[in-house]
Write a structure and sequence with these properties.
alpha+beta; Endonuclease I-creI; four-stranded antiparallel sheet; 9 helices
């Protein structure tokens, strides 16, 4: 028997599927209700979405989502995606595993060959509310560090690791003995948060328009070691 013409297609990837979806939405037809009810009964789709465990894993996941992640809100669900350079398999392995640990849901991993990009993604309800990260875009939104992260040094370190894995860089220029550990972002509240946290755990960063930088060689090495930067 030949496969269906739309097998593997979604409304995001196929114009005809999107047209069908839009028509059913206008007519208020829920074509998947019977299927969803059966999946819920079998425990394959969640019917309850409890609060997430507040621990180091969640703290780090929040950090990396704020850096390289996006949350989109749809009519019946939300999408959480984390993006990685395809040449960084350690990042992909770590954050797909972390997403699974936090949500108890194995993410899909897809490559975008033309963009040299890997996408780690899950769909679930109330993602933004449960992890405390605003839906995208977040450029002009005020980002607040959760109090439970601020109350524990290890959580602050894990939160910073997620941020630096997403938006951090380490550079050395030997001819001038210049060492730099950067965090770059265009959201002003994010820069302020990183500056305050790095200071709070004992380092001496300084700010520029779109970056936080640590320049003392000994501090750079200590901070990299402390947050396990790029250690997969």
């Amino acid at each position: 028997m030949p496969s269906n013409w739309n097998k593997g297609q979604t409304k995001e990837t196929n114009h005809s599927v999107k047209k069908i979806s839009d028509t059913m939405k206008q007519r208020k037809i829920d074509n998947f209700k019977v299927w969803r009810d059966r999946m819920r009964a079998e425990g394959k789709i969640k019917s309850k979405y409890p609060l997430l465990k507040k621990d180091g894993n969640l703290a780090e996941l929040i950090g990396v989502v704020l850096g390289d992640g996006h949350i989109w809100k749809y009519e019946r669900t939300e999408e959480l995606s984390i993006f990685s350079n395809a040449n960084n398999p350690g990042f992909v392995k770590r954050y797909s595993r972390l997403m699974n640990l936090v949500f108890n849901r194995k993410p899909t991993i897809r490559s975008h060959s033309k963009k040299n990009c890997i996408r780690i993604r899950i769909y679930e309800k109330y993602i933004s509310k449960r992890i405390g990260v605003p839906v995208s875009p977040r450029l002009n939104k005020k980002i607040i560090i959760p109090k439970w992260i601020l109350n524990k040094r290890n959580y602050m370190i894990r939160y910073l690791r997620g941020l630096y894995e997403a938006e951090g860089s380490h550079s050395i220029h030997l001819p001038t003995y210049t060492y730099k550990f950067h965090f770059s972002n265009n959201n002003k509240s994010m820069l302020k948060n990183v500056y305050n946290l790095v200071s709070k755990i004992g380092f001496h960063p300084h700010k520029s328009k779109n970056a936080i930088q640590v320049s003392r060689k000994s501090e750079i090495l200590d901070l990299i070691k402390l947050i396990h930067f790029r250690k997969y």
